[in-house]
Structure formats: C-alpha cells, structure tokens
Amino acid sequence: MTVFLLQWAVFLFLVGLILSLPLGAIYYLHMPQVKQFFTNPRKLRSAHLDFFMQAFSIGLVSLLEVGMNINIPIYVVTPLAFGTFFNPFIFLLEATPLFKTNIINIFCNLLKGVSPTSLFFAWFMILILYLPIYFLWLIIGLVIIFLIAFAFYKKDASANRSIYD
After folding, report:
1. Which of 107, 118, 122, 160 is the most exposed place for a label (fewest CB within 10 A)?
2. What is the pTM of this model?
3. d(CA 47, CA 84)
C-alpha cells in the first residue's frame, strides 16, 4: 500500500496546487470571471489548504507504514483515501454556486456525514492497530479535558445569557 499512499498524497498535493490558480486569480488578479464561479473565496481557500493537509496526513501514514515495516489493510486505506479526498472536496463544492442546486446540495450533505466518519474510522483503526497503548490513553485524556472544558463553557455561557436576558 505504500506506493498507493504516496501516489494518493501526490495527487492530493497537486489538487491543492491547482486550486492556488483560482485563488491567485481572485485575490491578486481580481478576475471577475473566476469570482463568478467561485462565489465563496473563503471556502476555496479552505479547500486549497485542506487538500495540502490531507496530502500531509497520507504522507504520515505512508511513513508509518515504511517505518514500522507493516502493510495497512485495505479496509483502513479505502476509507482513508475516500475521506482525504472528499473532506476538502466539500469545501470546494461550497465555494461554487453549484452548491445551491438540489442534487449537488443533497450530494454535499451526504458527503458531510460520510466523509468525516470514514476518516475517523480509518484514523481510529490506525491508532488501535499500530500505535502504542499510551497514545490511546493520551487521546482519551484529551477528550476528557475537552468535555470538561466544554461543560464549563456551556455553564458559563448559559449564566451570561441569563444576565443579558
């Protein structure tokens, strides 16, 4: 799978590079034709950066595979490849007026549920299968800390809201 992962990382990186062209046309050349198609430049920038980040993450998985001399199973690589492409692709769709059409909107909403879930599954399986157990404890600790912080924030926000009402 190492060769596929490296090829997939290069593909994602090149898509991110290609998206820099319309970004340059919008922000530096101020081309109205490009602005008409990419109506939300912030989402375009998010897609551009997210493709780079996903390429980087696939590169890390490839390094993990080479460094540990393992073969990551196909049931982990498939959702990883799916999620790393379609997560930034959602941003790309939202940057265009195509997002407002019914079929694309339904497709995008479906992707918003499936793509992050597939990435979460793939990364969780990599964590469980290949990383030492103390990483799992670190992740569980971080989740507990974030839940506690969220609970305090929610309590504080509701207290502040009652003061202003």
Report:
1. 160
2. 0.81
3. 11
Asked whether the predicted pLDDT for residue 164 surpasses 70, the reply is no
Contact between 23 and 48 under an 8 Å Cβ cutoff? The reply is yes
Report helix angle 41-68 to 2-27, nearest 10: 160
Task: Report the alpha-carbon distance of residue 111 to residue 86 in Å, rounded.
Answer: 7
Q: Is residue 112 classed as helix, strand or coil in its secondary structure?
A: helix
Cα–Cα distance for residue pair 86/113, rounded to 1 Å: 11
Contact 115, 90 (CB under 8 A): yes
Q: 84 near 47, Cβ under 8 Å? A: no
Structure token pair of residue 30: 């101020």
For residue 84 the two structure tokens come to 């790393």
| CA 110, chain centre distance (Å) | 15
Q: How far apart are CA 133 and CA 131, in angstroms?
A: 7
